[in-house]
C-alpha cells in the first residue's frame, strides 16, 4: 500500500477538514494524500495542503502515525497564505475519477466529537 501524509491545520478554534461523501457514506478527513516517489512525508503534506485546500502551509510537528493500508503521517501545520476551498487537485479537476465528493471546510474543534472524522484516533488528539 502507498504511504499517505496529512496536515492538521488549526486556526481560530477551527480545524480544516475535507467533507467526503462516497458510496452513500458521509465523513470527514484531514487534508492529505499519497506520498510520491522521492518525496518526504513532510513534502507530501505541504503539496497536498495546496492541492486539496488551496493553501501554502509550514509543516511543523509530527502529531500521529497510523498504520492503515500503509503508513499515514499526520503533521501539525501553520497557514502561510491562500484561502481554504481554492484547491485544484485531481479531486476537483478529474470529473471521471468517481471517488465521491470533496468539500474543504473549517469545523469548530468542539464539534469534532460529534462528526464522523477518520481516523478517529487523530481527531481525538486535536
Automatic annotation (TrEMBL):
Keywords: Hydrolase. Its cofactor is Mg(2+). Pfam families: NUDIX (PF00293). It comes from the Bacteria. InterPro entries: Nudix_hydrolase, NUDIX_hydrolase-like_dom_sf, NUDIX_hydrolase_CS, NUDIX_hydrolase_dom. SUPFAM superfamilies: Nudix (SSF55811). Gene3D superfamilies: Nucleoside Triphosphate Pyrophosphohydrolase. Residues 1-126 form the Nudix hydrolase domain. The keyword Hydrolase applies. The keyword S-adenosyl-L-methionine does not apply. Belongs to the Nudix hydrolase family. This is NUDIX domain-containing protein. It comes from Planococcus shixiaomingii.
Amino acid at each position: 500500500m502507498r504511504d499517505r501524509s496529512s496536515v492538521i491545520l488549526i486556526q481560530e478554534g477551527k480545524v480544516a477538514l475535507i467533507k467526503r461523501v462516497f458510496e452513500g457514506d458521509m465523513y470527514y478527513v484531514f487534508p492529505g494524500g499519497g506520498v510520491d516517489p522521492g518525496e518526504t512525508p513532510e513534502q507530501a503534506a505541504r503539496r497536498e495542503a495546496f492541492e486539496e485546500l488551496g493553501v501554502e502551509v509550514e509543516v511543523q510537528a509530527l502529531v500521529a502515525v497510523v498504520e492503515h493500508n500503509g503508513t499515514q503521517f499526520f503533521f501539525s501545520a501553520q497557514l502561510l497564505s491562500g484561502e481554504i476551498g481554492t484547491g485544484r487537485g485531481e479531486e476537483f479537476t478529474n470529473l471521471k475519477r468517481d471517488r465521491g465528493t470533496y468539500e474543504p471546510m473549517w469545523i469548530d474543534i468542539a464539534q469534532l466529537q460529534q462528526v464522523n472524522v477518520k481516523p478517529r484516533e487523530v481527531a481525538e488528539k486535536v
